Amino acid sequence: MTKILRADVMLTPSGEIENAELEIDDQGRIAYAGPARAESTVTHDLAGHALMPGLVNGHTHSAMTLQRGVSDDEDFMAWLEAVQRVEQGLTRDDIVTGLELAMLEMIATGTVAFADMYHWDAGLLDLVKRAGMRVLAAPAMFTADSVGFAGVSPLTGAETLDATEAMAEQFAGDEQIKIAYGPHAPYTCPPELLREIAERSQRTGIPIHIHISESVAEIEQMTEQHGTTPGLLLDTLDFFNATVHAAHCVHLTQDEIELFARKGASISHNPVSNLKLGCGIAALPDMIGADVRLALGTDSVASNNSLDLFEEIKLATVLHRGVRHDATAVSATQVLEIATRGGAAALGFTDSGALQVGNLADVIALDLDVTRATPRGSLSSHLAFAATGQDVRHVFIGGRHIYADGKHLTLDAAHIQRKAREARQRLQSSPA
Ligand SMILES: [Zn+2]
């Protein structure tokens, strides 16, 4: 059924529209986005709200919600060991619970799509479909013969590659589900495997999601073992001839930034995680300047510890101004674009991320009747500097109303939170 939304103001590619109207057709696509029309029959009166495109989380590991606060004050490599220790005790039920818990938080804070590297199988992808979200799911792998999630699946890295391709085939053409190869990182996956994945990617058209240049320790290890930096090493493996979406890229050289731009590889900037783990600050202004394709992400809650992208938006806007002593280094508009249309494109959801006719109706409504919006500057100013995920009151994905007046319509929040507490208790008391 056609939906017609009315709101005080709306963020569109052609600017901010006051007294706005959005029409969603019965295919879940935007049929009209503009000023309110006198003849319309409004189905969703959102007076006192702002409409904007749903946010896109460019990088996370959603099931790791169960590991919130597991290692909050350790260095990167010690942190990685701590979380991988917990992962050895995970069951598939835990991953279901962790994923559901992540979706509760993502939806409630306005995220409509996410890139996710973890254990993935068809049943988990069906959960995402039922919840109503979109995902670029990358089944994580390390070496060809190691098993990534022993308590969940017996698959080795090599078998995970085949399973990834089978899932991509199964969900081909699905508007909510996209699949990527998920090699963890250049320092955990051997070069010959990375070369094979790039070759497969070019053959199958399945993109690659990977962590690159996250920590100084990684740069040191790669330089010692291969005499070069991770980005340049990958280039010698013809890695960037494939479609690559990379997380972090904190320590890219200017040459590597230009390589990413030239090859059309995208980067998810994850400032909270990079700061929390003491990894550093990525050169976002230089990436924007070089026209690199960009997304904004939270990374997992084990390194964040929340999935509220509004925190990342504000931080990404102010952080680089402070670093460069330049309040024009990054604008609110640029970061909002990265968090919506940029992320959607990086994940392959090219007709999401902007409120314009023909696009999928992935739209969120924020309450403007809150003190932090009273009074306010432009909508972009409010969204980048003052709004929080708590202001999100409604979420529509592909026109489907999945969050209404602060209530989940597709997930049972109380049940999921109870399961999550029980799972965490068991994981903490297990000898793993
Ligand atoms: Zn990550």
Would you write up a description of this structure?
There is one protein chain. By secondary structure, this protein is α/β, with parallel strands linked by helices. The protein has 2 domains: 3-53 and 352-406, Urease, subunit C, domain 1 (Roll); 55-347, Metal-dependent hydrolases (TIM Barrel, Alpha-Beta Barrel), CATH 3.20.20.140. Helices cover 38% and strands 23% of the residues. The chain contains 14 helices and 17 strands. The protein has an 8-stranded mixed sheet with strand order 3-2-1-4-14-15-16-17, with helices on one face. Strands 5, 6, 7, 8 and 9 form a 5-stranded parallel sheet that branches. Helix 2 (92-108) crosses helix 14 (413-429), helix 11 packs across helix 12 (332-347) and helix 12 (332-347) packs across helix 13 (379-385). It starts with a strand and ends with a helix. The chain binds zinc ion.
